[in-house]
């Protein structure tokens, strides 16, 4: 195994940042990513509103590991490994539901919604040893579980900073999502999952990639033009990439990043219908930030895109060349019917494997993965736009909103900055190096 | 139902559904669009859980929802524009329609010979992806409301229940 630091050349002071294509193609590196990244940092699980009532649950994964997130009878949230302590079967079969008890279908061991062992079938006739009886039979909890304003995260390693520290001032950008409704936000009923045959980091990058819009999505842009010009009878209004003039981005510690574009046409946002309520509740400045187009990445598996509608997407890497995406449409709780309808149509128009934009993205990811077959080409040239304009710290705009960022890049939208990707790779290197050091220490002890 | 021969109606709507399927498979997009009324509803619900689809497209997510044919026209325009990499290499599709049932029909008062016909059937689409050299399969149920116009039947409403909604990277109207 190569030193992961050698797979990422981070020398921005000399105008260089590049990534070895092996990070997308090598199954051994994927294995290490699962162990040292997905199983060793905070990973997004879901929204608290998905488990709103006592005994509500949903099942998901941390990396490759199956997890149940449950609210117990007293209302306390917890996350546990979804595997019976007895022989390992999934304790919970369904994606979501409500259950006071989860009974393993194999040998009938039962667990409460607090993860505690309730009964072991025929315990008294089992001729068990004292050792067994003294053992803990509860579902194994995740090492760390945390919530930030309804966003649920967990880590399979206890050696992580607090969730607040991990998120840092990405919290500002999560606040801009949560505060869009007086009663908060919710995932609209109905979600979609799709897979693409490419590495998960292609999505990680593309979610923050301003450079691809005009070349990957010309058909979408043309359709928006045709609607605006009356050449299409479809009256749906949507965002106009071509109208963007300025753009800015922030990177944060722990791999997170945020991209924003002042929206010249905020009236084409469903949120605009409640602009007066927003201004009076959160103030003029935050209301304007909410109407900006924004894309954020909470490393390693959460992205929120606020351009057409408001999309939350969760990445689940399945192998080095296969990734599962689960997407939700977010909306203010109790949103008015007209705004909700507008939001849904915009979302369906753009996103999802059945939308008019996402399939062009995912096709490009798959074409990249196929192109990496050209193994003699080692280094990517896709991390260099903006490298001479990126600055350390938060910059005046970041300071004006009181956030502490690692870097900022602001200016003409045409820069279409790629330094925003650096944050994810810096965290990738940090976690991989720490993991390999742990492995080396384990091997020598 | 008086005056309408059920066997004849079944035969007529079956032939119509087969023609629609063939228009898609032969990529005769314009012919396909002509089979819809201008104000048709075209709806592919999403799923809320293992067992339940979304039922209210105004409040819940759909995979595709259009309240007019213009939405389908946008999709056809996109494919024909050759500016969408997702449809740069189109799948070779094969629609199979089966179990056609007429579940209701109503004469439209005041319009001689006009009627609305409710139809349900099962469908599968096998498709071959020439670029990936792979096969994909989609299947489900159509719930269709047809109206009889002077020039023939037209689709006023088509609800497509997609049973296998764990999707590959792309799915569009020609695969449904």
Which characteristics define this entry?
heterodimer, A: about 450 residues, alpha+beta, Rieske Iron-sulfur Protein, Naphthalene 1,2-dioxygenase Alpha Subunit, Chain A, domain 1, 2 domains, 10-stranded antiparallel beta sheet, 4-stranded antiparallel beta sheet, 14 helices, about 30% helix, about 25% strand, B: about 180 residues, Nuclear Transport Factor 2, Chain: A, 6-stranded mixed beta sheet, 3 helices, 7 strands
Describe the protein's architecture and organization.
The complex is a heterodimer of chains A (445) and B (176). Chain A has helices at 22-25, 27-38, 130-134, 163-167, 170-178, 200-206, 213-216, 218-228, 275-282, 284-291, 337-350, 358-371, 395-400, 422-444; strands at 8-11, 16-19, 43-47, 56-62, 65-71, 77-81, 96-98, 101-103, 110-112, 117-119, 144-148, 151-155, 185-187, 192-196, 246-251, 257-261, 293-298, 302-306, 311-319, 322-332, 391-392, 407-412. By secondary structure, chain A is of the alpha+beta class. Chain A has 2 domains: 43-146, Rieske Iron-sulfur Protein; 168-436, Naphthalene 1,2-dioxygenase Alpha Subunit, Chain A, domain 1. The relative contact order of chain A is 0.16. The model of chain A has no long low-confidence stretch (mean pLDDT 96). Chain B is of the alpha+beta class. Chain B has a single domain (6-175), classed as Nuclear Transport Factor 2, Chain: A. The chains are: A alpha+beta (445), B alpha+beta (176). Strand 14 (192-196) of chain A pairs parallel with strand 7 of chain B, so a sheet runs across the interface.
């Amino acid at each position: 195994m190569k030193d992961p630091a050698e797979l990422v050349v981070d020398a921005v002071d000399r105008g260089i940042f590049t990534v070895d294509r092996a990070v997308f193609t090598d199954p051994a590196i994927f294995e290490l990513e699962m162990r040292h990244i997905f199983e060793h940092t905070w990973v997004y699980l879901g929204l608290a509103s998905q488990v709103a009532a006592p005994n509500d649950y949903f099942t998901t994964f941390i990396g490759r590991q199956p997890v149940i997130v449950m609210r117990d009878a007293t209302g306390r949230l917890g996350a546990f490994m979804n595997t019976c302590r007895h022989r390992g079967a999934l304790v919970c079969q369904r994606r979501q539901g409500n259950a006071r008890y989860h009974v393993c279908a194999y040998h009938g061991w039962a667990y409460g919604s607090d993860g505690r062992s309730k009964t072991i079938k025929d315990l008294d006739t089992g001729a068990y040893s004292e050792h067994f009886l003294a053992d803990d039979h509860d579902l194994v909890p995740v090492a760390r579980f945390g919530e930030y304003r309804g966003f649920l995260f967990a880590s399979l390693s206890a050696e992580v900073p607090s969730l607040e520290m991990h998120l840092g001032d990405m919290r500002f950008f999560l606040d801009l999502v949560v505060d869009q409704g007086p009663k908060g936000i919710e995932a609209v009923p109905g979600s979609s999952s799709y897979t693409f045959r490419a590495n998960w980091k292609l999505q990680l990058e593309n979610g923050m990639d301003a450079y691809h819009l005009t070349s990957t999505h010309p058909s979408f842009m043309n359709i928006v033009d045709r609607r605006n010009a009356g050449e299409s009878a479809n009256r749906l209004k949507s965002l106009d990439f071509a109208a963007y003039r300025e753009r800015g981005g922030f990177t944060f510690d722990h791999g997170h990043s945020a991209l924003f574009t002042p929206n010249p046409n905020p009236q084409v946002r469903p949120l605009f219908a409640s602009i007066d309520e927003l201004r009076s509740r959160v103030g003029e400045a935050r209301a304007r930030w909410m109407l900006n187009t924004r894309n954020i990445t909470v490393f390693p598996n959460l992205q929120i895109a606020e351009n057409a509608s408001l999309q939350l997407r969760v990445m689940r890497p399945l192998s080095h060349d296969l990734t599962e995406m689960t997407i939700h449409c977010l909306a203010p709780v109790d949103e008015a019917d007209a705004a909700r309808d507008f939001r849904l149509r915009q979302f369906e128009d753009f996103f999802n494997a059945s939308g008019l934009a996402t399939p062009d993205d995912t096709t490009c990811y798959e074409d990249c993965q196929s192109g990496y077959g050209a193994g003699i080409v080692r280094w990517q040239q896709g991390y260099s736009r903006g490298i001479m304009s990126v600055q350390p710290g938060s910059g005046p705009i970041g300071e004006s909103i009181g956030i502490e960022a690692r870097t900022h890049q602001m200016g003409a939208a045409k820069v279409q900055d790629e330094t925003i990707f650096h944050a994810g790779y810096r965290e990738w290197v940090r976690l991989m190096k720490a993991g390999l050091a742990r492995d080396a220490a384990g091997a020598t002890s | 139902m008086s005056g309408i021969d059920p066997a004849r109606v079944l035969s007529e709507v079956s032939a119509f559904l087969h023609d629609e399927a063939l228009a898609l498979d032969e990529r005769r997009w314009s012919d396909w669009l002509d089979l819809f009324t201008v104000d048709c509803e075209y709806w592919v619900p999403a799923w809320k859980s293992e067992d339940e689809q979304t039922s209210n497209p105004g409040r819940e997510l759909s995979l595709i929802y259009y309240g007019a044919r213009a939405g389908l026209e946008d999709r056809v325009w996109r494919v024909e524009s050759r500016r969408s990499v997702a449809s740069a290499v189109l799948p070779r599709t094969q629609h199979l329609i089966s179990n056609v049932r007429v579940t209701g029909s109503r004469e439209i008062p005041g319009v001689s010979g006009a009627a609305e016909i409710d139809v349900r059937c099962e469908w599968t689409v096998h498709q071959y992806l020439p670029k990936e050299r792979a096969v994909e399969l989609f299947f489900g149920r159509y719930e269709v409301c047809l109206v009889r116009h002077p020039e023939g039947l037209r689709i006023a409403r088509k609800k497509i229940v997609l049973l296998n909604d764990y999707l590959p990277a792309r799915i569009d109207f020609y695969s449904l």
